[in-house]
């Protein structure tokens, strides 16, 4: 049977024969699992990838419709396999190296050289040529050739090549991240902001982090290769900052544990997003020097004294510190320690001072009671002095405040419901007790607070003042006297500023 061999077929035959030549005597270095179906295992065909194509040469082949197979086709198509049992042709490359599923849009007949075998000898040349030019077959032949090259030691396997490439990529990534960490450490050590207002590539100032990276990339090969879009996002910057923060925090806590005793300083403020941020600073002695270190900031949804105390106990405990070794506490800002009582104090001021009508009623009530006309004090979140004055004014003007709340409630005007609620709260015994006790306590600590802020105050004198104030507060707590004798019911107010 004559045939015309195309250049494509010649090239394919050359590749196939080159990789087939050593196959018979070559040990199987790769996986030789038989990928054929169970029915194919019973055929007289190759069983694994390392075997050569089965190409038996018979004296006479079975005849079908006056036509039969000719072994001359082996020379043209080196990938052919002939099954004596079924008198059919198969493709060695496709059986062992092609995909086992149909491609998109592919007809089921395209797999005939893999599954059933081809035995129609009338159009055999056309079918073999079409099969050899199919995409599936070409990919299988390339994979077959690569398989033989790997087994012969001429090429590296795909798995090894992937591992080598991955190892190189990991090294490059680590070098790149190490350079970014150096930038992060520098900015953190210098206390510089990381991000700018506009971080697009066209911006003249993309922020310190990106600008530093651009400068270093000119001399740093690791940064130059991955200059844009690799670990530069705000999220990745935050991750790197967090890594340094955890490391620094660990070192600080180790120093605190070595020092044993420590003090905590707590402050809170609102950020630009109007969220309350609580900062904790720890103070301790290390190598004979006093150290103050920030442990972090936390978003607080509630800033009452109870919520703050609960949070501090939990956070200090999670750091592995013993709260019993805390010898000092400082809360810069009364708002975080106000509790429900100080919240009512603030509400009373806002209710009366923010309304001209209620403010005039307040002045008239004091005049009617023949009292000196006073203004309620506005509180300040950062100084205890203003909280003392606010409590003092409410105690002195208590009757006038009640009169304003009663008048507002009876008038059923704007704010009458709030006035009724405030009246119920301030007439309750718990608040009256808190008001009297806090005014007395703040009066004592107010003097100490003022003296401790003097620049020329000597440490021995300050220690004496603190000790005497503490002793006085302890005496108030422990003496078994009546509330009036203890000063809780006797106003005895000092001069009002």
TrEMBL record:
Highest rank taxon of the organism: Eukaryota
Disordered as annotated region, ranges: 1-52, 476-497
All residue ranges annotated as the TTF-type domain in the record: 65-162
SMART domains in alphabetical order: ZnF_TTF
Compositionally biased tracts (Basic and acidic residues): 39-50
Polar residues: compositionally biased ranges: 1-13
SUPFAM superfamilies from the UniProt entry: Ribonuclease H-like
InterPro entries attached to this UniProt entry: DUF4371 (IPR025398), RNaseH-like_sf (IPR012337), Znf_TTF (IPR006580)
Protein name: TTF-type domain-containing protein
Organism expressing this protein natively: Synaphobranchus kaupii (Kaup's arrowtooth eel)
